[in-house]
Known about the structure:
Elements: H1 3-19, E1 35-38, H2 45-58, E2 66-70, H3 84-94, E3 100-104, H4 112-121, E4 125-129, H5 137-143, E5 149-152, H6 158-164, H7 177-193, H8 205-225, H9 230-242, H10 250-258, H11 266-278, E6 282-287, H12 292-297, E7 300-303, H13 306-310, H14 317-333, E8 338-341, E9 348-353, E10 358-362, H15 369-384, E11 390-395, E12 400-403, E13 409-414, H16 415-419
Parallel strand pairs: 1-4, 1-5, 2-3, 3-4, 6-8, 10-11, 11-13
Antiparallel strand pairs: 6-7, 8-9, 9-10, 12-13
Amino acid sequence: MNTDTLASLILDQQQIIKRIQLVPREFxxxxxxxxxxVGLRRAGKSFxxxxxxxxxxxxxxxxxxxxxINFEDERLINFKLEDFNDILVAANQITTKKHYFFFDEIxxxxxxxxxxRRMADQKxxxxxxxxxxxxxxxxxxxxxxxxxxxxxxxxxxxxxxLTANEIPHTQTDLLLTSIKGRVRAKANEYLQYGxxxxxxxxxxxxxxxxxxxxxxxxxxxxxxxxxxNPEALRIMIRKIADTVMHELSYSKLYNAVKSxxxxxxxxxxxxxVENVKNAYLLFTTKNYxxxxxxxxxxxxxxxTDNGLLNIFxxxxxxxxxxxxxxxxLFNQYQNKIYYLKSNKTGIDVDFYVPxxxxxxxxxxxxxxxxxxREVNNLIKLHHSFKDAQQLVIVTKDDRKEIxxxxxxxxxxxxxxxxxxxxx
Length: 423
């Protein structure tokens, strides 16, 4: 590879880093660690690389030390594994100071992981991302031999979503009636269309989300895993979307696919579920009360972005509300969230976070009969499960505190407050 071409590409990219305007994202990096960013397609991994580069500049790193390579640049169309060392030569042409390497869409180069491991072994500082079916998180961990920290990149959380929409949302701002109205309107939009960054400014959000889903479905799941029965996979995903909020065993998924006349094995269904989770389209919660084997086989499923779930739904606001709460918890606690269900006590609670000792119910409203159902579940939990120190009900708009006769304190919070960490 011509090192002058590489140097020119690096210098061009440095100018982009210098001037690009970004929505600040809530991520922290250790200064002397190597990272690979993983997550849902189009969640904003590349822009997070730009953000990290700008953070280094603010810390006193000079622009010439930032070596950013986008492997989708047409000038690298003939780049091969043996050309990677030329990047180091080109970097030293620009400066002999310590370099900070950013490799975007590196999966386009076959064998890239060998170079990435060598860079880590030589104590270089490296940040890597890739966004297609050749490079998903679980593969990366194995292929990089534990030399890199993985960081999950979700679509925008609600704070970032409001920032991207240029809506102030400090606690002082939220005292203003005009700001409250704008924030609530955006909460409704976020509930319906999720937080994929590119969707924010689009008028036809649903069409964009459909296209993203088809890319994930075809490239990140079917092609990558060489799935021979894509129709069975399609039916399975639709069944999961229809049953968000409810536990769903592999047997039920298997029967749902069989019921439409498709031939598929239960083992294939189990593999399909893992394929979809590995593409970051879905995540699961497990019953904290169950033994390990039951935990694994009867989960509840959620989509990592509400917009992608919503393309399957018609008039299912309650499903979107619970999925949004699940996304918020998953982004904060990853796989350390559960649901609570006991046939013996009759307890059925949507979420439990052991780290926060918090149990959470989700209900569109707690008016009328809904109040008795949701509150009674938490009261029963209060009597029998002392690890749940905080009891919360997240609703669409209701806000109040309930103190029961036996001293249970239940905080009812609207979705907006929950998303903004106001309670």
